[in-house]
Amino acid sequence: MKIILLLTVLFLSITAYSQDKIIEPDNKQNFIISGLYGNGKVIPSNNFVRGDNLQGKPIENFQFFALKALWHNPNYSDWQKVYKGPYYGFGLAIGKFDNPKEIGYPISYYSILGIPIKRWNKLEIYTEFQFGMESNWDYYDPISNPKNNVIGGSTTFRLDIALKMFYSLSPKLDLGAGLNFIHSSNGGFKQPNKGFNLYTPFAELRYRFNNRPDYKNLPKAGRVARSDDLYFMMGFGDPQKNYFAIGGLSAIYFNQLSNVSKIGLGTDLNYWDGLNNNSDETTETRNIDNLTIGLILQPEVIVNRLTLLGGIGIYARHLDYGNFIKAYQRLGVRCEIYKNCSIGVNVRGVDFIRAEFFEFNLGYSIRWMK
């Protein structure tokens, strides 16, 4: 939990710190408030959602209301020039499922980063990333809530990726719509913990306290310093299916392709403490069967000291999945905290919809400047 709080604070402080390098004569902060409503679907990735619950019905629908506080500055610093006017801030949301008696009404609080993809005269397309925490769940209890194997504790982590567009109604008012994917779970710290996966179309209305900056004539960033990196990562977490820990080491070589992107190829070695357990979860003697080996291709997006990452790999060795049969995925964020040292958190999953564990990590990069 402390790691998640630290990452959120670092995210906000890093973006705020970037404002020290103001080079534009207009230094308005361009504050925005935003309200949105979403109504979407629950991905049926576990038995509780599919109908094995006290009401005996599938949990199919999800809706939420949210408020956001955002800053949309016209490129005062290099990273903002690179991304041609991104926005960032924080949000608060309340959600509702089909079955609130067993799930509750989760409240989410999260940091936000929106990156423009394309701008026209009045229409803009963005991708948005959110990361934070959720509370107010009705979580698993062996007596009062015995079927809820999705949420095992009062607090969960939230990861949200959205694609959205905005239409300018006036110099201060924007109307938006989009689609987001949300993953919620507690990272295996409390069991059971299958987690929720959701996709939600939404509508958004945002109001600017200052007139819209002129994004048509943004200054170009030019070429910023680039490097090739050999990245070493030490990760740890708890799988969704049991209480046993996972620890591992990764080594990935990255080639920086542009000011904002890099791509890496490497390997993940993880020791799954409970991988060779018996069917009744009794523990076997640890041996080589607990070791998994993965090969991964990992593209990354650089945002100042923050890195957004995704990856797809294949298990070259895995006791349950076999060798070179099952693909796995990684989605996460890390922050450089001192020179080449970083901290981060990833969601590790398989089949593109089933999360296996949160991968908290410490990293170090050996860097060759280009």
Helix content: under 10%
Number of domains: 2
- Could you report the average pLDDT, rounded to the nearest whole number? 87
What spatial form do the alpha-carbon principal axes imply?
A: flat
Summarize the structure.
The chain has helices spanning 2-17, 47-50, 78-82, 100-103; strands at 31-42, 61-71, 87-97, 104-119, 123-137, 156-168, 173-185, 196-208, 227-237, 246-256, 261-272, 291-303, 306-317, 327-338, 341-350, 354-369. The chain is mainly beta.
SSE layout and pairing:
Layout: H1 2-17, E1 31-42, H2 47-50, E2 61-71, H3 78-82, E3 87-97, H4 100-103, E4 104-119, E5 123-137, E6 156-168, E7 173-185, E8 196-208, E9 227-237, E10 246-256, E11 261-272, E12 291-303, E13 306-317, E14 327-338, E15 341-350, E16 354-369
Antiparallel strand pairs: 1-2, 1-8, 2-3, 3-4, 4-5, 5-6, 6-7, 7-8, 9-10, 9-16, 10-11, 11-12, 12-13, 13-14, 14-15, 15-16
